[in-house]
Amino acid sequence: MENLCNISVIKDLFERHHFQFSKTLGQNFLVNPSVCPKIAQNGIFSENCGVIEIGTGIGVLTNELAKRAKKVVAIEIDDRLFPILEETLQEYSHIKIIHADVMKLDLGALIKEEFSGMDVCVCANLPYYITSPIIMMLLEQRLPIKWITVMVQKEAAIRLCAKPGTRDCGAVTFAVRYYSHPKQLFPVSKGSFLPAPKVDSAVIQLEVKSQSEYAVENESFLFALVKAAFSQRRKTLVNPVSSVLKIPKKTVALALENCDLKPIVRAEEVTFEQFLQLSNELFKLK
Ligand code: SAM
User: Fold this and answer.
1) What is the DSSP code (8-state) at residue 105?
2) Ligand 1 pocket, mutate which of 76, 126, 193 (most atoms under 8 A from CB)
3) Segments of the chain assigned E as strands
4) Tens digit of pLDDT for each residue in 52-90?
5) pLDDT tens string 91-132
6) pTM of the model
7) Which parts of 96-130 fold into alpha helices (H)?
8) How far is CA 42 from CA 1, 49, 196, in A?
9) Residue 204, strand partner residues
10) How far is the CA of 59 from the centre of ligand 1 (A)?
11) Which of 28, 93, 103, 283 is the most buried (most CB within 10 A)?
């Protein structure tokens, strides 16, 4: 296939297939030729790897994944891209393209059906309007996925990979760390995309934990607590936790005290381990 990062090749494809970018679907396609090989090299960790790609665009990353993986299943919501993909991916017989909204797919069933006996990973340049929902959906379902290697906006990368207890963290930071070991791999400038977005991006990698490593009284209470605490991140944690979870302020204050936390502590000052401890304590007291 011709170089899918070449602007005249892309323009020719779009003209022949009457394709126009959709802003609402987060269509910023990669045109920097060095980025896709790097994502694929970092994301595919064995020859026995089955890869799920979310959002094919015109297939520029799909091509690089297919060169290295045993099988690629790519999920794309925009069926206007399918005639283009028939052309750009024609040389590969081990790519399957599914027309679907990834948020509505049964990925557990898909993995069983498509990747039997393979190590499964996810590699994608994610549509930015649903970055966190996609990442949380992949993690919360405890799918048998080993690595998630994805391009996200720079600010999202910082938040997703931040250390709980620091200024950059949010509820999603805590959740990502609960389910995986996150790290930032490399930055990607906005000029690497067509059309260019307003902000720079970065590729991050989440090494998924195969099972929970923590002794938690009640997982859904833990996540409700973290979400409530970060709902007013710059304020002291007692107020939002008390009002959102409908627990008396006195009880929240006692739980904080039992965990050696200051009564005026803010969510962004609480470390990962302290949140686990606070959740167990509050769950017992409430
Ligand atoms: N992988 C291509 C690249 O790097 O050039 C395209 C990446 S582009 C940022 C995101 C892609 O995700 C688009 O092709 C878009 O149509 C697709 N997409 C958006 N929302 C989706 C969803 N809910 N499910 C599946 N694909 C989606």
Assistant:
1) S
2) 76
3) 29-30, 49-54, 71-76, 95-99, 119-125, 147-153, 180-188, 193-194, 201-208
4) 999 999 999 999 999 999 999 999 999 999 999 999 999
5) 999 999 999 999 999 999 999 999 999 999 999 999 999 999
6) 0.95
7) 107-114
8) 23, 12, 24
9) 150, 184
10) 10
11) 28
